Amino acid sequence: MTSQPASTSRLPSRQRILAAACEAFAQNSYETVGLREIAARAGVDVAQAHRSFGSKLELFNEAFRSAIRADMEVLRDCDDLAATMAEMLLARRAAVPGKLGAGLSILLHSVASPEAMAALRQVANTEFLDPLRGRRDSGGREGVVLAAAFLAGLGIAFQVLEFDALDGADRETFKRRVVSILRTITAGDTA
């Protein structure tokens, strides 16, 4: 077994397994990550990982849910949904160029997996779409879906395609443009 970082070594094994799964699925596709790898990252045996979550798919589902949970608390309680969404995406990218939050990274790495897509779809609906569509500034279900698609597209441009043009863009100007687009989407404007 590999040793886990000191910051996670004192956590209960279930939390260590979940943290290791979030990290592994944010870096690699669903198909290429195995329970043995996650268990090794967490410093437990594979039987413990299996007992704690039941299956790789159940662990994947919980890892995705866990990865977006903190962001959702911020988004549910923020004053300006469009500005907060833009700031969250761009702040993470600025902190580690080319990298996004764990939730979006997990989504992008496993979107091609039919097995993972069912879990991604279910969690995205219950943890992202449903809670946000009730906000006055969300544009309802359609607005939230369009905003999520736009942000996922930016995630692909940043993380997968590694567009250089975005690296040189003035961050505040780019953020204002992203916020403007998100506000248009969530306002339902079609002009």
Please provide a brief summary of the model.
The protein is mostly helical. Helix content is 75%, strand content 0%. The termini are far apart.
What does this structure look like?
Residues 11-71 form the HTH tetR-type domain. InterPro entries: Homeodomain-like_sf, HTH-type_TetR-like_transc_reg, HTH_TetR, Tet_transcr_reg_TetR-rel_C_sf, TetR_C_16. Keywords: DNA-binding, Membrane, Transmembrane, Transmembrane helix. The chain is an all-alpha fold and 191 residues long. The chain has a single domain (6-187), classed as Tetracycline Repressor, domain 2, CATH 1.10.357. It is built from eleven helices and no strands. Helix 5 (56-77) crosses helix 6, helix 5 (56-77) crosses helix 7 and helix 5 (56-77) runs parallel beside helix 8. It starts with 5 loop residues before the first helix and ends with a helix.
Our Rg estimate from Cα atoms comes to: 18 Å
CATH superfamily: Tetracycline Repressor, domain 2
| CATH A-level architecture | Orthogonal Bundle
Strand composition percent? under 5%
Low-pLDDT windows of residues: none
- Mind telling me the CATH class? Mainly Alpha
> For the terminal residues, how far apart are their CA atoms?
57 Å
Number of helices: 11
The assigned structural class equals mainly alpha
CATH topology: Tetracycline Repressor, domain 2
The overall number of domains is: 1
Overall 3D shape = globular
What order do the SSEs take from the amino end to the carboxyl end, as H and E? HHHHHHHHHHH
Question: Which sheet architecture does the biggest sheet show?
Answer: none
Average pLDDT for all residues: 82
Question: What is the strand tally?
Answer: 0
How much helicity do the residues have?
over 70%
